[in-house]
Amino acid sequence: MSQPLRVGNASGFYGDRFAAVREMLEDGPLDVLTGDYLAELTMLILGRGKMKDPDAGYATTFLRQMEECLGLAVERGTKIVTNAGGLNPRGLADNLRELAGRLGLEVRVAHVEGDDLLARAKELGFADSRYGQPLTANAYLGAWGIAECLRRGADMVVTGRVTDASLVVGPAAAHFGWARDDWDALAGATVAGHVLECGAQATGGNYSFFEEIYNVKAPGFPLAEVHGDGSCVITKHDGTGGAVTTETVTAQLLYEIGGPSYAGPDVTTRFDTIELADDGPDRVRISGVKGLPPPPTTKVCLNHLGGHRNEMTFVLTGLGIEAKAELVKRHLEAAFGDARPARVEWTLIGTAKPDPAAQGEATALLRCAVLDPDPAKVGRAFSGAAVELGLAGYPGFTMTSPPGKGGPYGVYTPAFVPNETVEHVAVTHEGESVPIPPAPAVADVPTEAAGEEGLSTQSPLRRVPLGRVAGARSGDKGGDANIGVWARTDAQWRWLEPFLTIERFRELLPETRDHTVHRHVLPNLRAVNFVVEGLLQEGVSASTRFDPQGKALGEWLRSRHADIPEALL
Description:
This is DUF1446 domain-containing protein. This protein is an alpha+beta fold.
């Protein structure tokens, strides 16, 4: 087919801009509108909700968005594909059918199931030695259940846990009639899906050089014009905020990835083959992507209930900041007595400026986070002890919040099962269950590519922030963090690639020194990607780091000073 498939995305996470669905439908033509609502933490939240109500477990926001916009989607002839089904895709599909009937609309709603492996957790060995049986256990399904539903006439497809990119790959595979082994086309669509999946991050959101982006309006959400060979153009609707450039696309391509071989249930995508090119204002062409067969195993997201947590933050002002912090620690450690929580972590944030002209300049924060299996140890006993220092502690005592009882936290771990273990099923709008066979097992799929030799730039050096020549984007992969760093020009890349070694990375970010760090080179993107194992501990819900999802690690790295050739500045 000569005409591209126009796929837009209106949600990057559960809680994203509510109005985006209406904006995407109103602002321009779309063949397919997707919505990504799931993350590892979201699965935990939905799992806790389902414990209280077996009929829950899906993203209720999406149902409210459809109440407002379903008629508009029908009027525009736009198909909708979403993973908002979470832990209960059948339940959400039933509610959408009821909604359509109530609105007097004819909408053929299908859904995909089979990702939920919780009932088989014991059989599959998912129990954790510390936390027991998981609260949720969901396999990352691929695109072919979505494709089957669309091929059989669905107007809307609801899924549970599929890979984020599958929301784009499925519609493209159905539209262009791709086969299971059209690896390059599938890989290209996977890249398109990866760019779209986080919404406005592709149009200037969370972008290192944000001051260069038109920001009078909120960034528009991205769309991809996908072609029959898997190549695409990333763009946005005319008149919306933000921008689509090779660098905003590069930033999103580096988000939450590992090595150059990006393994998924449908295809292993070679990120080191991606080619980007300007295609006009707010248009970036992606081509050249190569694909290989997927690995023989499927990833499973496990969430266990880990215990309970709480935190209190002390405001320290003026002179003797470190001495005041030590005083708080001594008092609170003494208050714990024999009931000290299993994990107590202190973080001193900021420092007071000399001769501060404003009170904020005189202030630092001391944060104490506690975790324990026993809710009593981290509840009022902890927060109350912190507040009791009010008249018996350091001068200028104040806190950022009143005492609270805290709450439960979850622990994320990945697991892997043979592809044939997962019963991937497409349930058509007519109620027929169609089994989706697993991808054929293929061994020895490469996972890494060698980097290129860089060329040193001979020029006088100036000590300036690394961010003068490099952008970065960082995020979480369970307990691991990834920091993708890209150079803005070819000359800067020839300097950056040999400069930013693992050893240099650890020097610049000392908190990574005790962790295993992997470095992957992506020359086509002028980028290096670092994966730091265990930096985020046991995942966002259990992490006691001040930045538990690692979102700001890239900006910390960019703020660090390095000796950079003046010719590159």
